[in-house]
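User: My collaborator sent over this chain with a note saying "see what the structure looks like." That's all I know about it. Can you take a look?
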Amino acid sequence: MKCYTCGGKMEYTITDLPFKVHQHSIIIIKNVPVFQCSNCNEYQLEDSVMKSVDILLSSIDSKVEVEILSFAA
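Assistant: Without extra context I'll predict from the sequence alone. Here is the result:
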């Protein structure tokens, strides 16, 4: 698989990703499986992973400022 940004090689890895939800909430999801470019570090999530991330993010209380969650497939 090639990177859509720079054409570099995408490699499977596990990483931690930050997301901003609501107006003032930052959520860090640990251990997310992604394809990451070895050249520019751009990443892509598979559809099934993004669906799981969306479910996690939709369950966040809007009053939370920072929360750290673990990804579970």
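A starting point for your reply to your collaborator: DSSP finds one helix and four strands in the chain.
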